[in-house]
Specification:
Length: 352
């Protein structure tokens, strides 16, 4: 069960409780957010939906949580549900949840985390005639499309030819004022210098990794930090982690063993971060903030780094189930990194 499927399962439990007269809620949430448990939580995923429903239902949050807990325990694929704190639902999945998550990611490929949540919506995005604003708009549009929306892009003036050629900006952006009531005007702090000398990938990262209200580091004295292939460069860490996963797959094939999802211990924060990827994409779309996705990719890459040296057998060691499971996890993490970079309009090379 993927996080998206679990979200739908919890929402279905809410609807059944309303239909049965156990909850008197006039307006149901459109979606339920599930994420790895926070401090004090347990299980595979947690949700605060009971706290959201408590006031409109006129019941204490722990009571709402217990109602939903009873229904969720009858659901195939869920082994346990524990109520913690003021009313958080902590959900444990049956069997090998880690292996299931990895299988789900590998099955979905780079589209893992994509959904149809925003299907039917056509938001209008508008940008000033500024390189950073237009790059931001393009990245937001890519993430919105991953969630099912069909955004319409407008700009105060036609994009510069260099923005199209070098930064990968669509050439068919409409010219308009963005003054309509449906317009979502993006106003990031402008870039202090021309980003095009960095090339497409480094320039887009330099413009998207900082939050829109932060000033990008560009111009004399800063360009090297975006192009340097060293650990101080977060884009390099993300792309290097992806390339390492692809190299491990090639090396494992030479040794004659394939990836096979299964329990991986210890795995640090890698699996929780991968499980959180669909939520990050949804939040990136909702807040028009590609920096959230960029920071998430850095976190995945950094969490993956300690695992990679243990993926392949050492010396005369024979490949084991643990090696195959770690290889599958590495492949899944690389898949998430590649998919996220693509949504930012940045290449994810297999060799670096």
């Amino acid at each position: 069960m993927t996080p998206v499927e679990l979200s739908r399962t919890v929402l279905h439990a809410v609807r059944r409780a309303v239909d049965a007269g156990e909850l008197a809620v006039a307006v149901l949430p459109e979606r339920v957010v599930v994420a790895p448990p926070g401090p004090g939580g347990c299980g595979d995923y947690a949700t605060n939906v009971a706290l959201q429903l408590a006031r409109p239902a006129g019941q204490p949050a722990p009571r709402v949580a217990e109602l939903l807990r009873t229904r969720l325990l009858r659901t195939d694929g869920i082994s346990d549900v524990v109520v913690t704190g003021p009313g958080f639902l902590n959900i444990s999945l049956d069997g090998d949840a880690d292996g299931r998550l990895v299988r789900d990611i590998l099955r979905a490929g780079p589209r893992y985390g994509h959904s149809d949540t925003l299907a039917g919506q056509a938001p209008e995005l508008h940008a000033a005639h500024d390189a950073r604003a237009v790059v931001l708009m393009d990245a937001v549009a890519r993430v919105l499309r991953s969630q099912g929306a069909r955004p319409r892009l407008t700009c105060a003036h036609p994009p510069e030819d260099a923005w199209v050629r070098i930064l990968g900006i669509p050439s068919d952006i409409l010219v308009g004022t963005g003054a309509g009531t449906r317009s979502d005007t993006l106003r990031p702090v402008p870039a202090p210098a021309d980003p095009t000398p960095l090339g497409r990938d480094a320039a887009r990262w330099a413009l998207l990794h900082p939050a829109p209200h932060d000033r990008p580091h560009l111009g004399p004295g800063h360009d090297d930090e975006h192009l340097a292939q060293r650990e101080t460069n977060p884009l390099f860490r993300v792309r290097y982690a992806h390339a390492r996963t692809r190299a491990l797959l090639r090396n494992a094939a030479d040794l004659g063993f394939p990836p096979e999802p299964g329990p991986v211990a210890p795995h640090g924060d890698v699996l929780p971060l991968l499980a959180d990827h669909p939520r990050v994409l949804a939040a990136t779309a909702a807040h028009r903030a590609p920096d959230r996705l960029a920071r998430h990719l850095v976190a995945v890459a950094d969490a993956l780094a300690p695992l990679l040296p243990s993926v392949l057998p050492l010396g005369d060691e024979k490949p084991s189930a643990a090696h195959r499971a770690r290889l599958a996890l590495a492949e899944a993490a690389g898949t998430v990194l590649a998919g996220g970079l693509t949504l930012l309009g940045i290449d994810a090379p297999d060799h670096l």
